[in-house]
Amino acid sequence: MPCSSWHFVSAKAAFCQNETQQDLAQLLSHNATVSSNIPANFRWSTYDEPNPALYITAATEGDVAQVVRYANRHNYPFLLQNGGNGWADTFNLSGCGLMIDISNLNQVTFNHDETQATIQGGITVRELVAAAASRSARIGTATCNCLGFLGAALGGGQSRIDGLYGLSVDQLISATVVLASGEVVQTSATYHPDLWWAIRGAGPNFGIVTSAVVKVYPIPAGQNYAWQASITLSRDQIRPLMEVLSTLKLTPEMEFDFYFATSGAPSYTPAIVVVPFYVGDESAARTAFAPILNLNPVNITGGELPYEQWNSAGDSFCTRGGRKPAYGASTARLDVDTWVEVFHSYEAFIASNPTAFGTSSTILSENYPRPNTSLESALTSSYPWRDLGRHHIILPSYTDPALDEQATTWAASVRSMLWATAGTAQNSRSVSIPQMPLNIVLTIRFSSYINFAHGDQSLSTMYGQSLPRLQQLKRIYDPWNRFDQWFPLFRRGDYWP
Ligand SMILES: Cc1cc2nc3c(=O)[nH]c(=O)nc-3n(C[C@H](O)[C@H](O)[C@H](O)COP(=O)(O)OP(=O)(O)OC[C@H]3O[C@@H](n4cnc5c(N)ncnc54)[C@H](O)[C@@H]3O)c2cc1C
């Protein structure tokens, strides 16, 4: 950017910081804070992270609506921050951008028979799991403790217990939403059912959920546990491993992840780690995962874990800071030849600069059981990929911005490899839009679960068959495209209501 523009932006930001800080201090509740000091490591990844002029910490649900109305009056961009893990490359808070942190809105209350809970919008997976565990119950959350429960759920929310209870988004019973106008509405299957459909898959494009009622599953005392293991295999076991994983039948109690990692300094030798998960006891789990255990792995650790520890294995993945331009691909199957090639590509990437890339770059594959999806259940929410159970993240991790181009080129190339044999090439999806005489058949060849997407791909790879109806509803609920930060349904500059 030319220097003159830079001065203009800086002056504008300084002006808005002073004025806005004073205005908001008067509008917001006593315990809310408004600061031009942006907290260190406030995001999981520094790559393309949002760059707000002001960081607002909401203390009440009413504060959130106040900030949205204020931002509208001044035409300032704003972004809600919950867990701060989203890695979309679509954030743009230039000028007087406002970040609204709702991590203090983290309360949860249970109903009398503990089958439902009312949560505030900023509760994390860790906080929600701890609350459910203390009542001998389960809630279908995503699998990493650091995530905002709703940050993950509003895009779908893949959970280890998907097979038993459904996606995190299916756990929602009703929600309170701050719309783009700043109006606060209730939504559920009976109140604003079209908004209800839209937020469950594309939530951040439609509003801010400040509270929600979710399903809770009481579990008899002593039975709230599962078996989990960490199985390490060497590089020469990649093909036999992929042959086993690609054909392993997943029952509803089962789920597995696998990822590539290195031994670290000095050799940075790549290896494969499989993390199988089974809701049940160890002997049943070992039977279910016998084909992997029989591969003569290098190392196996694990055992039965209480519910509150199910996500602990992912805590290192939650480490904040550093550059992590992640790319996602979703597939119907694991293609053996492709995955062998992908592993070799990972090895070559690490070998190109072991000290820069070799510590925590990875490729992670999450594999969930998927029952045959009926048309009815596919249409109940805007989440489009109910028939796809395999979601993959290509994750280069490093600190030097000069390596961005090499890292993103590699990650995008691996995504192309995975898409090429995704098993979705003939994936025709019928789309009918209510109140319109339309019945479109879309052919969507490539898919990315939105929460794992990068942001450079077409909208249909993320929103699938839901895209036309979502865009129609966006014109109704957010005609000025105020929620335009998270994989926006209309590209900035393309949108004319
Ligand atoms: C370490 C790690 C582990 C992960 N594991 C899983 C997993 O197991 N399963 C899975 O499905 N995904 C997983 N993901 C992906 C994750 O679902 C997304 O990154 C998700 O967007 C994170 O939400 P957040 O609240 O933590 O992040 P944020 O960046 O705070 O939020 C992401 C987006 O959601 C919006 N948002 C958040 N809360 C609300 C709300 N209450 N109302 C409206 N909009 C909201 C934000 O404005 C932002 O646009 C993982 C990601 C990471 C980094």
TrEMBL record:
Q: Which residues form the FAD-binding PCMH-type domain?
A: 48-219
Identify the keywords attached in UniProt to this record, alphabetized.
FAD, Flavoprotein, Oxidoreductase
Coiled-coil residues: none
What does the record give as cofactor?
FAD
- Output the Gene Ontology terms for molecular function: FAD binding; oxidoreductase activity
The record's PROSITE patterns line, in alphabetical order, gives:
FAD_PCMH
User: Which domain of life, per UniProt?
Assistant: Eukaryota
Q: Which family does it belong to?
A: Belongs to the oxygen-dependent FAD-linked oxidoreductase family.
This protein is called what?
A: FAD-binding PCMH-type domain-containing protein
